[in-house]
């Protein structure tokens, strides 16, 4: 299939990531700047800077989400977790209207959210990424499927 992306391929919400990292840097700079401008003691200043750094760290963690597909399977990196899946474990890739991100239906009957593909700020990009991942799963999965799935 020539329309399949070359492996390895990484799917991530680029616009959302840029916004969150930029916001994190700006928040850190503003809070730290305020701490330096106010007449505060060293401990109070430090608490401002630490608060700004903590906010930046949280936004950086939120922006690290991604889905990486390679020859042997898919790695889903969400906010607080990372999960490696073989191609055969993925039964279906879903991005329905109104979904906040892609959901992977797995062969064990569970569903795994894949936050690396989300329509937030770039809906058409997310739809294209979901279709590309679906095509990769269809091409590479050896899981048993019934005709009504898909």
Structure described in brief:
The protein is an alpha+beta fold. Helices cover 42% and strands 21% of the residues.
Structure in words:
By secondary structure, the chain is an alpha+beta fold. 42% of the residues lie in helices and 21% in strands. It is built from three helices and seven strands. The protein has helices at 14-37, 42-62, 123-140; strands spanning 9-11, 66-70, 73-77, 82-86, 90-94, 102-106, 111-114. Strands 1-2-3-4 form a four-stranded antiparallel beta sheet, covered by helices on one side. It has a three-stranded antiparallel beta sheet with strand order 5-6-7.
Features:
150 residues, alpha+beta, 4-stranded antiparallel beta sheet, 3-stranded antiparallel beta sheet, elongated
- Structural class, please? alpha+beta
Whole-number radius of gyration?
20 Å
The beta-strand count equals 7
What's the story with the biggest beta sheet?
4 strands, antiparallel
**Global outline:** elongated
Distance between the termini: 18 Å
Helix content: 40-55%
Low-confidence stretches: 143-150
Mean pLDDT, rounded to whole units?
A: 91
Describe the strand arrangement of the main beta sheet, using strand numbers. 1-2-3-4
* Strand residue content: 15-25%
**Helix and strand string, N-terminal first?**
EHHEEEEEEH
Number of helices: 3
Q: How do the strands and helices of this protein lay out in sequence?
A:
Elements: E1 9-11, H1 14-37, H2 42-62, E2 66-70, E3 73-77, E4 82-86, E5 90-94, E6 102-106, E7 111-114, H3 123-140
Antiparallel strand pairs: 1-2, 2-3, 3-4, 5-6, 6-7
């Amino acid at each position: 299939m020539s329309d399949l992306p070359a492996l390895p391929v990484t799917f991530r919400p680029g616009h959302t990531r840029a916004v969150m990292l930029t916001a994190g840097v700006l928040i850190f700079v503003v809070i730290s700047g305020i701490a330096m401008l106010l007449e505060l003691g060293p401990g109070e200043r430090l608490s401002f800077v630490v608060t700004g750094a903590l906010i930046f760290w949280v936004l950086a963690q939120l922006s690290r989400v991604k889905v990486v597909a390679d020859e042997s399977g898919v790695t889903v990196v969400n906010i607080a977790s990372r999960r490696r899946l073989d191609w055969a474990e993925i039964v279906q890739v879903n991005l329905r209207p109104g979904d906040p991100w892609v959901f992977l239906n797995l062969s064990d009957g569970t569903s795994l959210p894949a936050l690396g593909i989300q329509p937030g700020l770039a809906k058409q990009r997310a739809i294209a990424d979901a279709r590309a991942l679906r095509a990769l799963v269809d091409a590479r999965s050896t899981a048993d499927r019934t005709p009504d799935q898909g």
